[in-house]
Structures are given as structure tokens and as C-alpha cells.
Amino acid sequence: MQWIRKIHKWASLVVGMQFLLWLGSGLYFNLMDHHKVGGHTYRSHAHHEPGDIDVTALVEPKAVLQRNPKSVVITQIELLGQPYYLLTHKLGLYRDFENDYSLVDAYSGERVDIDASFATRLARQSYNGPGAVDSVTLLQPPLEDFPKQKNATWRVNFADDIDTSVYIEAGSGRVVGHSDAHKRLADIFFMLHFMDYGNEGSFNNIQIILFAFITLWLALTGLIWTVDLAFRGQYKVAWLSATIPVKIFDQQRRPLWEVELSSATNILDGLAEHGIALPSTCGGGGTCGRCKVLINPSTEPTSADHEQFSVDELEQGFRLACQHFSTDVQDMTLFDVTDAKKVTLELTNSRFVSSNIKELRFKVIGNRLTYKAGAFVRFFIPHGHGDVRPKNIPHQYAGNWEGVPDEQFERHACLRSYSLASDSHTSEELVFAIKYQRAPEPGVPAGVGSSYLCNMEPGQRVDAMGPFEDFYAEPDYSGPMILIGAGSGMAPLRSIILERLRVMKSTQPINFYFGARTEEDLLYQQEFFALSRKFSNFHFTPVLSRASDDWLGATGYAQQVLFANSTTSDLLAAKYFICGPAGMMDDAMNQLRELGVEAKDLYFDSFA
User: Fold this and answer.
1) Are strands 538-544 and 510-516 parallel, antiparallel or unpaired?
2) Residue 47 pLDDT > 80, yes or no?
3) Which CATH architecture fits 481-606?
4) From CA 190, how far away is CA 599, in angstroms rounded?
5) pLDDT above 90 (res 573)
6) Where in the chain is the domain with CATH 3.40.50.80?
7) Pick the CATH number of 239-325 from 3.20.20.140, 3.20.20.450, 3.10.20.30, 3.40.50.620
8) Which of 90, 145, 463, 599 could be bridged to 179 by S-S, CB 3.0 to 4.6 A?
9) What global pTM score does this model have?
10) What is the DSSP letter of 397?
């Protein structure tokens, strides 16, 4: 199934991008001026009176054909008020198709060539604008402005405000058409709308044929994936669910508990509801591979199971708890149960620290929690209705939320993990810096956990489990530390820095590189500058990717500034603590590995 999911992902990206192009070009077609985009702004549509033709003086068509025996068709036409015979030697299905013409003076019977002077006079007759002739060029197909035209054509350019060009067919003197700035802009949108990226002037092109096959693949892989999920019981209806007793054993097969798990909840979340915490940093997405259990009887593995376990492990019954339900199991063995406990937290304060991130402070109802700096807590998000737009947005950040509708969406119960931005030694409060995840597009809900927590009011309570200590600095490490963060990845790094400086009174070199888009996105900026003034071993380097003109600090990305301002020996001597967006983390760790930094010196907290 893994390759089915990959095909579906990339096919959806291609189809989605083209749908956006269709939407944009379709909107343009509804708003455009159809007269202008046809190239008709300066086109003369006046009827030209026929010239004073002496019919008795015309050469007989039969005589003309005798001189040109290979002609297929002879037609009398008029150009600039004079009669001509148009001889067609090769006839295409349409006049834009490849044709072979010659022109004969109807009075003399002599062949006439449409040269630059003749083409210019024909173009002038078709043009009623203010411009003078700027240039005359004979073009061979294909023509950029008229890709369907397959015959040699004169282009007569006029020096006017919209760069008008009149095209005259070199063989027949026919006006192929007018093109100008309006038409050329419209041609771009037609190209995008009909996927005519080869400029063939037709929607029956190889690009749209390939797109049809990609769309077919998207539909087929989506259907296969849906059927596969259905057969594996991944679609659960809460009101049809049942509670199923499951026996729990430890690694020595000693019985621990017998719990009743809902068939509508995966094993990871079901165990958490009973206060049994399995490690998980991916939020149940099946990517971290930490919530492993041994299931009996062995059930069909998911694609996530195949990625995390070997063939032998799968045959033994190893599975990811987040990918299976109680209907799949009679008993299971747990390997890595944490000491985390279920607690109730009460919100004491909530404030925006940037346009997208809120600082939330909670007090623990009951006994105080102790934890290593860098730990995270797993929140139980209840079923209800979430808000697409946060409440009580400060005035200075209101502009960043313009256009975001004040709507609600249905929120299903789930678990969400957030890192602590505090340390347990200097404060009894649990502090979090949580990014309010916006809806990526209309019809898709905003962040389920962030919209709930960030819209809580002081005094409200929420159940949680933790803390989980997966990302921390060893207490006895006294060498150089380099921390790289961005966005809400600030939280666990702030916790580690506060513990090292305020609690441990560490004198080791600590360098913190934090990336943000603008200065208003620099969380706790003044606090870190104050720490750097108080502790000589601590250095804070904020980096902006979209800095204003008056910003005097570093610009670009945090990891780039680190590498540009450090020697290789300094980089190899340190341990690294990295947290933030996946792109930043991947780039930083890949470069560090290429430099020779060992895996044991790389600590990271992934939000994936």
C-alpha cells in the first residue's frame, strides 16, 4: 500500500495545482473584455466598397489555369480594390492548415508576390489605430501569437499604446488576425486553462492527455486506499462502537491489567484513556514508530507497520498501537510504558506572543509535576466545535487574520502533544507556546488541538497526560551546546536554556539560533537578550527571513547563519538541540551529518 499512497499524494499535488490554475483563469475569463482580448481594439471592421473593376478586361480563368495546370482551385478575390485570382495548389482542411497558394493579377495574368510593401498596405487597410508602421517581418510557422497558422505570414507591427501586430498570410494576402497586449495576456490564461504548455493552439494536446491519466490514477489509488482502510477497520462510527476487553502483559508476559477499549478508538488513545501512556511523538500518525506493541492474534499489518518493523517482527505480531483497534486484538504485550500520569490542568493565563502563537499557562490540579527541560504533555482534546479564527485577537495582530472566516467546524475527540516552554524548578506553572494552526484551505478544518487550547478561557480545565521526557540535555554534559529553532519550536529550547542558566548555573558555551519571518514573530526576544547580558556564556542570534529595511540583525535562515559564522572545529565540538518546522530541521541535520557530526550529538524534537 505504500506505493499506492505515494502515487495518490503526488497525483493529488499535480491535480490540485491544475485546479487552482483553472480557478484563476476561469475567473479571468469572466472578468475580461471579450472585444479587447480578441485583438480587435484597433481592428477596422468597416466594409470596403469593391473597386471599379472592368470585367471585360479580366483574363479568362481558363487561361490562368492552363498556365498553372497543378492548381486545384481558382478563386477571384479583391485586394486593395484590385481583382486577383487566388490559385490553390495544395488545399488544407482549414485555411489555417498548410496550404499552397499563388496570386495572379486578374488583368494581366501575371503572377504577383505579396512582398513587405504589399503586406504593409493590406495591414494598414485592416488597422484603424493611431500608430505608424514600426517593422515588417516575414515569419515561418509556428507563430507565437497564432500557433494554429501553418503558412508563412507577414507580421506588421504598429507603434501604438498596446503594441498591435497585424498578420498577413504571405501566399493569399488574407488577414490572419490582429494581436496586441490584451490578446497576448489572454493567450497566457488560455494556455493555462487548456494546459497548452507547448503553445499548439489546441486543447487536444499531450499535456491534457497525461493529466487525464494522472486524474484517473488519483481516483483509482484513492478508491484502493479507501477500500483498504475499510477492510482494516480504520473507519469507525462512534454510535456503533462497542467496548472490548483486552488483556495487557509486560515484556515477561506477566499480566498487568485487563481494560475495556472502545472499538471506535485506536489502541494508543484507548490505553491513554485508562491512564496507560505509550510513547508517541507523531500524534498517532504512524511515523515515529514508538508506540509498538505485540498483538495476539497477529492482525494484518498496515503500511505504517511495514515501514517501522522488519518482516520477522511483523510475523511475530509487532504492530503500532496508533494504527490498530481493539477489534484486532485479544491480548497484547507492552514494551515501553512511561511513568506519565493523567492530570487535570487549569488555564491561568493566555496571551498572544506573535500573530500565530499564544503562550498558555496552566496550574496542575493536585500534586506538582517535575520534569526534565524539553518534555512535552499530551492533551485530551474533547469532542465539540472548533473555531477557524481565534478569539480576542489583539489589535496589532488583527491584520494577519484578515480574510479568515469566523466559522466553526466539528471537532472529534483526539490526543495532541505540545512541548513545555518552562522548567519545573523555577515555576509551578506549565507554560506552552502553541501555534494556532490555520485551515490550509476552505473546507479543511483548522488545527484541532491548537484551536481548542488557544480559545480556552482562564479558569477552564483540560485533562492531559505527561510529562513525557524524550528530548532533553544530559545533566552531566558540560561541553558546547548549539540550539537551532524556529516558530513554536522555541518552546522546548527555551525550557532547556532556562534550566541550564537559571537552575544549573551552567558556564558551558550555549549558542541559540532562532529563525522567524518578521521581528514580531521573534518569541521571547527581550527575555533572551536579557539572558545574554546576564550570562556571558549564552549567545542569542535571532534570524529573520523577511526582515524589514530597519532590521539590523541577521537575515536568511537560522541554520545558514550558524554555518556561515562558525568554524568546522567549533561545529564538530558541540552537541545540537534542534526543534521547528520539518524543512528547517532536515536541512540543518543533513548539513551537520555531511560535516561529520555524529548521530549521538544530534538531539531533535519533531512536530511531524
Assistant:
1) parallel
2) no
3) 3-Layer(aba) Sandwich (3.40)
4) 52
5) yes
6) 481-606
7) 3.10.20.30
8) 145
9) 0.53
10) G
